[in-house]
Amino acid sequence: MASDRRRDRDEAFDDDYADRRRGRGDREPIVRSRPVQSKGLNVPGLVALILGILGLLFSAFPCTIFVGMPIAAVSLVIGIIGIFTAGQSTGRGLPIAGASVSAGALIVGGIWLALGMSFYKKADDRVQKMHEETEQRMQKVREENEAFFKAAENKRLQEAKELREGKAVIVTAEALYEDFDTKPLEAENKYKNKVVEVSGKVHRVDRDRFGRLAVELDAAGDGLVRCEFPREAQAQIERLRPDQQVTIRGRCTGSSGKTVVTIESSILVTRGK
């Protein structure tokens, strides 16, 4: 045991002696670790992230994409600035996250915008088609109306020409009224809807509640032949006097009562003194 203790002491002495003889240059350098410094906050990155989240929320709904997309665009620019201005004291995590969220918001808003434009185009095409169909229908209606009025005008001109120049049944006011009074069926077949040329004496010039002028001719007994004139004949008709002899052409429409035979579209042919 004593020999073991002696041997340990000798070894310790030898080590201590070797250390004293070793120079300073031979000693191992002492390495001291530097304190770890925490990175600072990247303010543009934080702003970009907050604005990017807001832009994404607004861009998620079609009715607010015009608010969300401008916010996302501004956030994307701030995020890019934060990425390029990040130094050793600030990290790039926040600006990258903010730029990514902003880009996502722009993509979502762009999708909604594209869908909206597509829907608007389809709706506009449908409205345009309906407008064209409506125009075609209106044009067809206009053409039909023009054809109808043209046919009506031609018919009126033809009837007016027939009244002035066509063949007419010549009869006196007394005979016309007597035929309808005594032989109504024969009179209907002979006179109704035909051009007649009636001569007789003026009983009076009358105007109905609609302002239409008529010349009433004396007939047998209390009977009258009522000749209705258009408005443009007013100046000519108003100069007629009672008991004046006249000849009138028109289209007979039959008996309108027990004492009246009616003639429409009348034309004054002659008048006596």
Give an overview of the whole structure:
This protein is of the alpha/beta class and 273 residues long. It is built from 7 helices and 6 strands, in the order H-H-H-H-E-H-H-E-E-E-H-E-E. It has helices at residues 2-21, 43-59, 65-85, 93-165, 173-182, 184-191, 234-237, and strands at 169-172, 195-207, 213-218, 224-229, 245-255, 260-271. Strands 2-3-4-6-5 form a 5-stranded mixed beta barrel. A hairpin with a 4-residue loop joins strand 5 (245-255) and strand 6. The longest helix is centred in the middle third of the chain and has 73 residues, at 93-165. The radius of gyration is 58 Å and the shape is rod-shaped.
Summarize the topology.
Blueprint: H1 2-21, H2 43-59, H3 65-85, H4 93-165, E1 169-172, H5 173-182, H6 184-191, E2 195-207, E3 213-218, E4 224-229, H7 234-237, E5 245-255, E6 260-271
Parallel strand pairs: 1-2, 4-6
Antiparallel strand pairs: 2-3, 2-5, 3-4, 5-6
Helix pairs in contact: 2-3, 2-4, 3-4, 5-6
